[in-house]
UniProtKB/TrEMBL annotation:
Family in the record: Belongs to the metallophosphoesterase superfamily. Purple acid phosphatase family.
EC number: 3.1.3.2
Catalytic reactions on record: a phosphate monoester + H2O = an alcohol + phosphate
UniProt-recorded name of the protein: Purple acid phosphatase
PANTHER family from the UniProt entry: ACID PHOSPHATASE RELATED, PURPLE ACID PHOSPHATASE
Cofactor(s) needed for function: Zn(2+); Fe cation
Annotated InterPro entries: Calcineurin-like_PHP, FN3_dom, Metallo-depent_PP-like, MPP_PAP, PAPs-like, PAPs_C, PAPs_N, Purple_acid_Pase-like_N
Amino acid sequence: MGWKVERLNVFVMVVGLFLQGVYSYNRPPPRQTLFIPHSVDAHSDSRPQQVHISQVGQDKMRISWITESPTPARVEYGHSPEDNGNRNIATGTTTSYRFLLFKSGQIHDVVIGPLKPNTIYYYRLGDSSQQYNFKTPPSQFPIKFAVVGDLGQTNWTNSTLQHIAQSEYDMLLLPGDLSYADFIQSRWDSFGRLVEPLASQRPWMVTQGNHEVEKIPGIGRPFTAYNARWRMAFEESGSDSNLYYSFEVAGVHVIMLGSYTQFDSASAQYKWVVRDLEKVDRGNTPWIVVLIHAPWYNTNTAHQDEPESYRMKAAMEDLLHGARVDVVFAGHVHAYERFTRVYKDKPDDCGAVHITIGDGGNREGLATKYINPKPEISIFREASFGHGILEVVNATHAFWTWHRNDDGEAFPSDSACFTSLSTQSACQI
């Protein structure tokens, strides 16, 4: 039966990728996908795996994990690694999902808090004695974000994750394309195990990309695995969908948008963005950062003329420009590119800086060809795997660095200083 399931998985993946148009240009040879197995012993069915945390509101965290067998959705947590009888206990929910012949493990989801900022907490999950720890983000500047897109699970991914781990970041932002499971659901499990060492210690805030859609016409719903496994705190921002939401941390308002759900002016997402931007208080959050998957600005030959890019840009760029959004991060294109402040394809001192960072380490390879001559709005571009660090120093200044994976080292290949548009008199609304 196992070989039949695997052959079905491969068939479904090939058909699905063709229907979604994922292979839309000639990529370099693909890289091998790693598979991280679950440790097997007498307690393996009840042992937590794929642990990751995400921020909920200003002072809470959602802890998510999976077990093979039913266990309590319970988190025991406190300031000390010792069980001194003063620990807090929170309970949550357990769900699972089916995808064709695949049935997921028990997906546990518990929100804990209120928590103190910039503080280490120790926690245990379910009935397990294994102990984890995480650090909450600061409540005020400075704050350091790691930014990486299109991660996948290859040796390049491993290198990227090791470099991020050395950066002492406070929160990770991921603009889509997480596991590259592409319909083979066991790859979601493998990805969860691969990122657990980082994702269990710092909040990971993600949005979806095209590889999360996993929709077979006439069968099931899109984003089934993504929504079940990577639930974000969308309700807290007034959103009705896990595919778009916002949150605030240490003076930064972060908006996660969905490139692969409706975004025209009549859509629920568009109307939510309007409401969300109206509520932003630049006195409390002087910075606005937006994440999308399909870039609105792109001088790579890959992923040109895709509706998720040009139609979403036509629908929403005026909204972001009117709100004086500072930075827009995108993925999708497997390379790095930084633009000047731009609006309607021209330099604009009150426009957002657009940065494509879809170079986390996916198996499909790099997008190595660019349009020449380079347009003046494109400041720096390079087809290498890597990650970025956005350090928001204070209400006025932030420092950006892109680190290329260079022979096992994280080499700082591009950097820039940004000034918040909320402090620019010429850009006052």
